[in-house]
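Mods, move this if it's the wrong board.
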Amino acid sequence: DGRQSEKAMLVRRGVQRLLHEMRHAVLPELPLANGRRADLISLSMKGEIWIIEIKSSIEDFRVDRKWPEYRLFCDRLFFATHNEVPLDIFPPDCGLIVSDGYSAHMLREAPEHKLVPARRKAITLDFSRTAARRLMLAEWQTGQTFGE
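Not the wrong board. Structure tokens:
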């Protein structure tokens, strides 16, 4: 949406590639029911919902106090950053991914905290509807039909 820094976009690209390799479906910038917006949200082959919060600097992490609210909307919560940000600033009870813009490496798996079924259904529906809407808009804008 134009608000992300160049570094954040590089991190995002590498993390998206990693998640794609892991066979996750990934969406950037998904609005959540609490008014927050997940930087990246993914849906695994098993149906797990992951949220990845991207932090491009120490300051970006320090000023953000909203990230604990994301736990209510995912089975696993990760931080993703690049190699110029010290890794010890990130909480140990979240997963950690480091990206160079071309690929990414999961340094720490996120602990699981399973969503309740009603919330899982709501988030999965939001994910699906948003993905379909974005695909339709992309087809309208480009005149191309996308498929697998």
